[in-house]
Amino acid sequence: MGDIRNIVILTGAGISAESGLRTFRAEDGLWEDHPVEEVATPEGFARDPDLVQRFYDERRAQVLAAQPNPAHEALGRLDREFSGELLIVTQNIDDLHERGGASRVLHMHGEALSAWCLGCDARHRWQGTLRDGPACPSCGQAALRPDIVWFGEMPYQMDRIFRALGQADLFLSIGTSGAVYPAAGFVQHAVQSGARALELNLEESLGSRNFHETRLGPASELVPAWVEQVLGG
Ligand code: APR
């Protein structure tokens, strides 16, 4: 794999599953016992802000209690040792990539540990709760919401993502079902730009046919093996 100079990696909930954080589309289709649409839409937040704030207060506490697994740590090693271009685009709102040692990480769906003020648009690192309406550190208003991209909202840094996809010579997808756009369309864009596409997932995904190769198994086994392959040359 010596000819690889530019890698874009897309990760989904599957890479954090072995850290104890639930994926979205398990067999019951619920996310922590809630229909995803109920707790991950602006309409849901307008309908019942307390429910949604509590939901993300629980997610935030879970993220803080979780630990990176070997897959996150392997990508941290790749970030340190790979001399080419690398961008990890994650759909996940946890900080396990960063705690696993990666720094070139882009959270396209926002972050559980960030709060967004609807009063002054400021964003703040946040580890506590939001259900009790704390004051925004910048403007003092009680207008903080989870800094999460909900259904119907625009994911973050899409221009930067598509520029990276256009320049990649390897696109790697880890632990995502390919059920949600725009992330599910990234593989076609990368392949059209000439990248090789590899998928590492527990099972076939909705997008598997778009990849040159799919390897099935748990991320904690497949990702370290793949990083060794890339770094080992
Ligand atoms: N190792 C690798 N893959 C795994 C593992 C594991 N241990 N466990 C589960 N998976 C795979 C599943 O087979 C599935 O294909 O991870 C994928 C998880 O899919 P989803 O639950 O749909 O999560 P994701 O693809 O990240 O969802 C995308 O949807 O609800 C929105 O914004 C939310 O970011 C989320 C987006």
Give a description of the structure:
- This protein has 233 residues and is α/β, with parallel strands linked by helices.
- Helices cover 32% and strands 21% of the residues.
- The chain has eight helices and eleven strands.
- It has helices at 36-39, 42-47, 49-65, 70-81, 96-99, 158-167, 186-192, 219-232, and strands at 6-11, 30-31, 34-35, 85-90, 105-107, 110-117, 123-125, 144-148, 170-174, 196-201, 213-216.
- The strands form three sheets. It has a six-stranded parallel sheet, with helices on both faces. The protein has a three-stranded antiparallel sheet with strand order 7-6-8. It has a two-stranded antiparallel sheet with strand order 2-3.
- A hairpin with a 2-residue loop joins strand 2 (30-31) and strand 3 (34-35).
- Helix 6 (158-167) runs parallel beside helix 7.
- The radius of gyration is 18 Å and the shape is globular.
- The N and C termini lie close together (6 Å).
- The mean pLDDT is 95.
- The structure holds adenosine-5-diphosphoribose.
- Adenosine-5-diphosphoribose (APR) binds at residues 12-14, 17-18, 23-25, 36, 91, 109, 175-177, 179-180, 201-203, 205, 218-219.
- Adenosine-5-diphosphoribose is lined by residues 12-14, 17-18, 23-25, 36, 91, 109, 175-177, 179-180, 201-203, 205, 218-219.
What's the total number of strands? 11
Radius of gyration (Å): 18 Å
Q: Ranges with pLDDT <50 over ≥5 residues? A: none
Query: For the terminal residues, how far apart are their CA atoms?
Result: 6 Å
How much is the average pLDDT? Answer: 95
Q: Strands of the biggest beta sheet: in what spatial order?
A: 5-4-1-9-10-11
Quaternary assembly = single chain
- Spell out which ligands are present: adenosine-5-diphosphoribose
Individual helix count: 8
H/E element order: EEEHHHHEHEEEEHEHEEH
Structural class of the helix and strand makeup?
Answer: alpha/beta
What is the share of helical residues? 25-40%
Q: Main β-sheet, in a few words?
A: 6 strands, parallel
Strand % is: 15-25%
Shape: globular
